[in-house]
Write a structure and sequence with these properties.
It comes from Pedobacter psychrodurus. This is Short-chain dehydrogenase. By secondary structure, the chain is mostly helical. It has a domain of 213 residues. It contains 22 helices and no strands.
């Protein structure tokens, strides 16, 4: 009897452990996300954003404002010398002054949520017009909604830029809170953006969580109109029903990639089901691209049908999306398949990591073709021009500070400043040392 009780207890605990596994892994991903965005360039970017947002504060007695006002004024003065469209005009002295201000409040920036300040667009308007936000720290759904939109726009806008890119996009999407938005197209598109970026940063459980919510929502809302989604993916030739089906498939695709990179056997089995669902949607639409070819080849190799993977592999190997070395890797995969060595193909050059590269390369290539500023203006997003000019300003400031604070550059600038006379040298004291 005792043995039976012990056995039942073990089974119960094992079942509970299995039930908690997904949640535990999700919590671990949340901790990893915090670590991934906690480094100097991201903190400096956040510093510049808080400076802009703080200019819209009307009640300057707020403690958050008081701790930061002097440094914010210095940053804003420097940002006002940049037009945000590539004509940078940041001097060595200004860049080093901003860096000194940053260092003096770095800990405050790390510990402060930028979203306690007014909207970023409100900050840019205040910089240009002097008009401040009447209620700077209000926390209602309207602010949450527009804040989410701002972070979502920035996450996509910086993703395809050479100077900022994925780390900054990851920071922006980490600030979004889609769960606080009403069910709508913006919410489901935001969940996809987060899922894509989380996957690209190996946060597979966070990515899977949002994409699963998306799939359920799309299944329940088959007649929903998706104009933003159509513009986002460049699906102008698809009608509303086809856009829904294509977006449905893309969510299955990236959830499949998430599960493919997880460690448990059950997740790998689920990933194959997701890939089948993706291909089913794409085949209904007659879509052929690198994603379809990559998944077709992978599924056929996994299901021990190597000869059926060859046409897709041949198409992939000719795609301009890949570098010469990647095309050579695909050619090697084809050789393995022809030599009946499908196992080597899957454990060698055509492995899970390579599959993920295909997905990221294709998606970024697709998103980089979108004129985000034009898209936002067409869909009536307020102050899109100010936001995109702001991105240009942030890039210019970040690049200048990064350049002028390198040890080798500092030594060079010391000599240059020394040549220009004692007045400039006096100004530079404290910045260069």
């Amino acid at each position: 009897m005792k043995n039976l009780v012990l056995f039942c207890t073990v089974l119960f605990l094992a079942a509970c452990s299995r039930e908690k596994t997904d949640q535990v892994l999700l919590e671990l991903d949340k901790k990893k996300l915090t670590e991934n965005i906690n480094y100097d360039k991201i903190i400096f970017y956040k510093f510049a954003k808080i400076a802009v947002r703080s200019t819209a504060v009307q009640d300057t007695s707020q403690p958050e404002y008081q701790k930061f006002s002097k440094q914010a004024q210095s940053v804003v003065r420097t940002l006002n010398t940049v037009d945000g469209h590539g004509n940078e005009n940041i001097s060595v002295i200004d860049a080093l002054r901003v860096y000194k201000e940053y260092r003096s409040v770095k800990q405050f920036v790390k510990e402060t949520d930028e979203d306690v300040f007014p909207l970023l667009t409100a900050g840019f308007i205040a910089m240009q017009t002097g008009v401040k936000t009447p209620h700077p720290f209000f926390k209602d759904l309207k602010k949450v909604y527009y804040q989410n939109i701002e972070h979502a726009i920035l996450s996509m806008a910086v993703l395809t830029t050479r100077d900022l890119g994925q780390p900054f996009a990851l920071y922006e999407c980490s600030k979004t809170q889609p769960e606080l938005l009403d069910d709508c197209e913006i919410k489901t598109l935001l969940e996809f953006v987060r899922g894509f970026l989380f996957f690209g940063n190996n946060l597979f459980y966070l990515s899977e969580d949002g994409l699963s919510r998306n799939i359920k929502w799309l299944d329940k809302n088959e007649k929903i109109l998706l104009p933003y989604t159509k513009a986002f993916f460049g699906w102008s030739r698809l009608n509303d029903e086809q856009t829904h089906l294509a977006f449905h498939g893309m969510n299955y695709l990236f959830r499949g990639f998430d599960r493919m990179r997880m460690e448990r056997k059950i997740d790998e089995e689920r990933s194959l089901e997701d890939f089948e669902a993706f291909l089913n949607d794409m085949n209904k639409l007659g879509i052929q691209n690198e994603l379809v070819w990559g998944i077709t080849a992978y599924l056929n190799l996994k299901k021990e049908r190597p000869e059926q993977s060859l046409p897709a592999l041949e198409k992939l190997s000719k795609s301009p999306l890949f570098s010469n070395s990647e095309r050579e890797a695909l050619q090697q995969t084809i050789v393995y398949v022809k030599d009946r060595k499908a196992d080597k193909a899957l454990t060698g050059v055509y492995d899970k990591a390579f599959m993920g590269k295909i997905a990221i390369k294709y998606t970024i290539a697709m998103l980089s073709k979108v004129d985000w500023e034009k898209l936002m203006k067409q869909h009536g997003v307020p102050h899109a021009e100010e936001v995109f000019a702001g991105i240009g300003k942030f890039k210019a400031l970040s690049n200048s500070v990064s350049e002028y604070t390198q040890p080798s550059t500092i030594e060079k600038e010391k000599k240059e400043i020394g040549k220009k006379g004692s007045e400039l040298l006096e100004k530079a004291k404290g910045f260069l040392n």
